Amino acid sequence: MNQIRIALLLVAWLAGICSAIPAVASTSRKSSCPDVQLHSNFETSKYMGVWYEIQAMPSFFWTIKSCTKANYNQTSPEVVEIESKGFDEAGDNATSSSKMTISKESTARMLTEFMQGITPPYQVLDTDYTSYACIHSCLAFGPIKNEFVWVYSRERTLEEAKVSKCRTIFSQYESVDIQALTNTPQDNCI
Predict the structure, then answer these.
(1) Centroid of chain to Cα 54
(2) How many domains does the chain have?
(3) So what's the pLDDT on residue 118?
(4) Which of 48, 55, 91, 129 has its CA 20 to 30 A from that of 106?
């Protein structure tokens, strides 16, 4: 019973924060997540390894604000572990560890372990595995929706044509606020 009360308080807290901070996610009036087109024939093994965040929607959930580098490692047929590092807002070292479970519906859709009982999707919309990836995530609770997109690269930089390709894919979904995408600083990184 205490766990239910804590979960309800958490949902209420998230609802309050999400309504008070519009930059947390896309601020579409639609409260449902879009049905996105996932990368066809996605090969998880080719996706594993290091990815750098080139662009992202701002989020207070994510403490790493610059030099974001994530290493993806498939530890079993169903599980991917991610070790991320970079710098927080103060310029101090920041790290994060998480796991994703590969969906039975499509390997291009994984469920992240954000909190117990809350598993936002990690959806690969497009990638060539060697240079760029276009990622979407959306989670809706009643009238509250958090939607994010990311542009990733295998290097700390990415040619503008590939960034534009991801932005074009994201713009196919009216709920995604392309204007909210910001460059993730990748300068003076270790």
Answers:
(1) 12
(2) 1
(3) 84
(4) 55
